[in-house]
Amino acid sequence: MRALSGAPPSRLKEDLIALSTTQDLAAETFSPDPEHGRTAAAPALEAAIGRGAAHLLSRQRPDGHWVFELEADATIPAEYVMLRRFFGQRDPAREAGIGRYLRRLQAEAGTGGWPLFHGGALDVSASVKAYFALRLIGDAAEAPHMVRARQAILAAGGAERSNVFTRATLALFGQVPWHAVPVMPPEILLLPRWSPFHLSKMAYWARTVLVPLTVVMARRPRPVAPVGVSIAELFLIPPERVRRWPGGAHAREPWRTLFGALDAVLQRTQGLFPKLMRARAEARAERFVTERLNGEDGLGAIYPAMANAILMYHCLGVPPGDPRLVTAWSAVEKLVLDGKHETYVQPCLSPIWDTALASHALLEAGGIPAEAAARRGLDWLLPHQVTDLVGDWADARPGLAPGGWAFQYANPHYPDVDDTAVVVLALDRARRQDGTAAYDAAIARAQDWVVGMQSRGGGWGAFDADNAYHYLNNIPFADHGALLDPPSADVSGRCLAMLAQLGHGPDHPAVAAAVDYLLREQEANGAWYGRWGINYVYGTWSALTALHAAGLPPGHPAMQRAVAWLKSVQNPDGGWGEDGATYPRRGGTRPDADLREGASTASQTAWALLALMAAGAAEDPAVERGAQWLLRHQAEDGGWLERDFTGTGFPRVFYLRYHGYAAIFPLWALARLRNLRRGNSRRVGFGL
Cα-flanking dihedrals φ and ψ of residue 302, to 5°? Predict the structure, then answer.
């Protein structure tokens, strides 16, 4: 049976009709068989769902929304210590809490240094920042844990192996010379739109981080108060003698050599730029930042951009009491999370995402309290839709009316296609259940915006359309390989699922293009790459639920290959798990040949179960084994313990631990399994 990829809409529709009976046959094939003990006991499943729903309900805020902790690696709290110390600010109690947090992460890692995710290998850049922060806090260089850190960093190649952003931070404190940092002059803001380096060609996060940083790198400020700390001991050779700095493993020739030569020229000539041009460029940077300052939610609503905004205003001579600086500092402080014994700093906040996902899980769980709580969450979401501001996304889509939701409490210049699709899917599900028309206008506006944001190849990026200028990831400044926001299978899956749930069939151009895109993106082993979650299990869940909603039956070859892959990577204990090391080392989406799965986690097990159920395998023994894993690992409070990082900021560089994932996704998966077993059909009735 041929694949549907590349088929025109009319042929796509014919193929779907021809294959539709396979789904009914699959439902009959996977009928429950209680005599052979293939299904979890209904009372145990129901009790677990009840405890999970109660746990999630207990985390709802009084106004109806959810927001869980969002944790990254050691770099963000370390950078916070450095930022405060740059301005001569000390808070001994808070620094002590951050110190305890950093030391615990080091001890748990067991490598001497600090990883990018729980259980990961030592990362030089994260370890250099954490070491420097601890020295600023007051830890002696000869303390046992600092000796272990230093030895580990040197064994890994020394601090000279640090990435661009770490080098820029160290240069601020005079720990390395500024020639250690690739040149990105403010004048790039003056380039015409057709320029290959125009700001609009970069992703939103790169834009908001880079614009203020260009001013900082050009001005090269010194700390307001001496810090009295040197970390020269972390270098294998004196820092001032280092000339060759590492680039990203993803960089390709001839771009690497070409852009390296260009940087060498800029290093020698940047001081010769006309003063008037520099003044114009810095003024444009200030206007860009101030226009997007975003109140106490901060520039771009992400920590690195907020911190760089503070440094930029300082470089431009803005006094500390200026409302812009006061607001920027307030945004940073809003991310600090003080616990009883430890303190860390979140990279951003995730209330829209958390609330939408929690609402989905509770609607699946059902019952009067759960459904009422979900509707309170959806009502909270409704006024957060961005309808009155045309953001940066309009550079690629001029004339498109706004209608999306952001990821954070507020980030109107940068609504997120992914969040928008997930919110719409929940709003539509709720209105189907109670017949309300209160969500109709918001859904219609969001649908138009999402369709308008589709990229030319049929997929969607998270914040921009057609943001696929891949040569930019080869510039020296992009050693992290994350300067762009190209379409991804996971975001595209959610958008396709949204359109399908809203009733758009294969004749809809956006649906047909999205189906073709997802079928093209499937890896040879049957999985899909996960850009915003770790990793192939996340991507496969996102794609399978969407393709199912779009009408592909279980018998379709793409569905069968995906099911076979999921079953092949199920752990012996019944769960599924991956860590950040599953991202291909040299970039791209194709798995490394030596790919190894990780220990089972609650959220990834739930994603696998949701994917298998969408593919018509609700009664497959693999689903039963996965459900049993979730039942065995549910905590007494109704949630699931998950210390692993299953979220992704930037593959290979920055990972996230969503503390809410273990409360949301297992409940969702178990409730769906129960609902399918209760019904007469094994077909999932929703897009997500």
Answer: -130, 145
Q: CB–CB of 234/128 below 8 Å?
A: yes
Q: To which H or E segment does residue 288 belong?
A: helix 275-291
- DSSP string over 412-424: TTS-BHHHHHHHH
CB burial readout 141-150, b (16+ within 10 A) else e: beeebbebbb
| Residues 369, 44: Cα–Cα separation, whole Å | 20
Tell me the three-class secondary structure of 433-455, residue by residue.
HHCCCCCHHHHHHHHHHHHHCCC
- Among residues 644, 544, 648, which one has the least CA distance to residue 602? 644
Q: Which one, of 493, 569, 571, 500, lies nearest residue 532 by Cα?
A: 493
Q: Distances in Å between the alpha carbon of 30 and those of 21, 552, 681? A: 15, 18, 10
Nearest Cα residue to 650 out of 225, 80, 204, 276 = 204
Reference 561, options 540, 578, 576, 546; nearest CA is 540
For CA atoms 605, 609, 611, 617, give the dihedral sign.
positive
The total of other beta-carbon atoms located within 10 Å of residue 487's CB is 26
- Nearest residue to 324 via CA among 281, 298, 299, 290: 290
Q: Which of 202-206, 252-256, 611-615 has the lowest mean pLDDT?
A: 252-256
pTM over 0.85: yes
Decide if 179 contacts 140 (C-beta within 8 A).
no
Interval 442-485: pLDDT, tens:
999 999 999 999 999 999 999 999 999 888 877 766 666 678 99
CB atoms under 10 Å from CB of 617, counted, come to 25
Q: What angle do CA 135, 141, 144 make, to 5 degrees?
A: 115
pLDDT tens, position by position, 606-626: 999 999 999 999 999 999 999
In whole angstroms, give the CA distance from residue 180 to residue 167: 7
Please, what's the b/e burial string for 268-295 (b: 16 or more CB within 10 A of its CB; e: otherwise)? Answer: eebeeeeeeebeebbebbbebbbebbbe
What one-character-per-residue DSSP string does 10-44 give? HHHHHHHHHHHHHHHHHHHHT---GGGT-S--HHH
Q: Are 649 and 303 in contact (CB under 8 A)?
A: no
Question: CA-to-CA distance for 164 and 174, rounded, in angstroms?
Answer: 15
Catalytic residue, candidates 418, 419, 464, 620 = 418
pLDDT on residue 27: 35
Q: In angstroms, rounded to a whole number, what is the distance separating the alpha carbons of residues 153 and 147?
A: 10
pLDDT in tens, 340-355: 999 999 999 999 999 9
Instruction: For residue 490, indicate whether it is catalytic.
Output: no
In the 3-class helix/strand/coil scheme, how is 506-556 assigned residue by residue? Answer: CCCHHHHHHHHHHHHHCCCCCCCCCCCECCHHHHHHHHHHHHHHCCCCCCC
Instruction: Please classify residue 573 by burial: count the beta carbons closer than 10 Å to its beta carbon, then call 0-12 exposed, 13-18 middle and 19+ buried.
Output: middle
Measured distance between the N- and C-terminal CA atoms of the chain, rounded to whole angstroms: 26
Query: Residue 26: its pLDDT value, please?
Result: 32
Say how far apart CA 616 and CA 537 lie, in whole Å. 17
Quick one: DSSP state of residue 659?
T
